[in-house]
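2024-03-11 09:14:02 INFO worker-7 job=invfold-0412 stage=load source=structure_tokens
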């Protein structure tokens, strides 16, 4: 087997493109946190993440990444498709919808091949993590319990921090017996004994004002509602992205920015490096960008890279993380697009 593991620079995006609404440089002196190097360029990589991570380690990236979040295949046995609309030249004809393969989640070798795949990549992620770093692995009922045992071995049972439950409400009822499956799990491990962790307070809607001593209440003028703050726990009650939301892209497994935001805020600081080696639609990278973190993203799917690139270039038109009713209104900081060839037999 011949292996090509040299990462190639494809594109540097540090100047505006008029079609995305900016006529000034993407660089803005007041948009960098104090510990964010001015010459840093974020990195988006097209290629097999095993080869990408191996190459990054060869380049000296071991121990440099502060936070990794991944949303890998779930061992569902399905292929995930994407719908592309092709406009017709004829006025009276409807647009043609073409289905394309986004990514495969089928495993000819069964669960053993899936676990081998994950093991090899998790070991590389451990090596890339800084001593104060953390990793969050997003799965569901299919293989979450298997991967948890594997992560105990790779990262150390003593470094397991939380099993986070992402609870959501969607339609549908069980086909046979049992309760409706309405949650995913996210396994949170630290690299060492003293990881970065910022305790978070989240706002909770108040149907009635409590007016109790010690309860922080406030009125949101934009939303015209009363809220209170409480410390975040290990259940994230966050809804899926609905069809009519501005955030929604044509990507089957897209996750909400609201799900990634508390992870990045808790386990990194401004200027830290956040990585997602299954970046998909680019949610982790977009949130890291908005929160002033440096980022590295990777995906094997060319379609995922295209969606992510466009999402970052159009980030000024996306929602602000503080409110669904405001726009972010800032351009992306400079980033590079890299490519690494897959193994060739």
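2024-03-11 09:14:09 INFO worker-7 stage=emit residues=345
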């Amino acid at each position: 087997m011949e292996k090509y593991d040299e990462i190639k620079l494809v594109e540097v995006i540090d100047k505006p493109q008029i079609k995305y609404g900016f006529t000034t440089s993407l660089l803005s002196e007041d948009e960098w946190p104090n510990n964010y190097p001015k010459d840093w360029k974020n990195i988006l990589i097209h290629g097999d993440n095993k080869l990408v991570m191996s190459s990054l380690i060869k380049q000296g990236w071991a121990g440099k990444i502060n936070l990794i979040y991944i949303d890998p295949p779930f061992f569902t046995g399905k292929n995930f498709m994407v719908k592309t609309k092709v406009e017709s030249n004829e006025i009276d004809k409807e647009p043609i919808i073409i289905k394309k393969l986004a990514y495969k989640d089928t495993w000819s070798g069964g669960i053993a091949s899936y676990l081998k795949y994950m093991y090899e990549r998790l070991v590389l992620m451990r090596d890339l993590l800084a001593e104060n770093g953390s990793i969050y692995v997003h799965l569901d009922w299919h293989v979450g319990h298997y991967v948890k045992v594997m992560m105990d071995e790779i990262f150390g049972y003593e470094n397991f921090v939380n099993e986070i439950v992402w609870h959501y409400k969607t339609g549908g009822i069980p086909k046979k017996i049992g309760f409706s499956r309405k949650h995913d799990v996210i396994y949170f491990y630290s690299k060492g004994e003293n990881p970065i962790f910022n305790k978070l307070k989240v706002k909770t809607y108040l149907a009635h004002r409590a007016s109790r001593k010690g309860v922080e209440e406030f009125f949101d003028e934009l939303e015209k509602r009363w809220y209170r703050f409480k410390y975040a726990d290990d259940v994230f009650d966050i809804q899926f992205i609905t069809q009519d939301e501005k955030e929604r892209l044509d990507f089957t497994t897209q996750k909400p920015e609201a799900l990634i935001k508390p992870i990045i805020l808790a386990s990194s600081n401004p200027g830290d490096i956040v990585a997602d080696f299954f970046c998909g639609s680019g949610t982790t990278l977009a949130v890291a960008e908005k929160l002033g973190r440096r980022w590295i993203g990777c995906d094997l799917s060319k379609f995922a890279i295209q969606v992510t690139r466009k999402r970052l270039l159009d980030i000024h038109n996306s929602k602000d993380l503080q409110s669904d009713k405001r726009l972010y209104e800032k351009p992306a900081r400079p980033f590079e697009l890299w490519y690494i060839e897959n193994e060739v037999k």
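2024-03-11 09:14:09 INFO worker-7 stage=report msg="Residues 257 and 287 are 6 Å apart (CA to CA)."
2024-03-11 09:14:10 INFO worker-7 job finished
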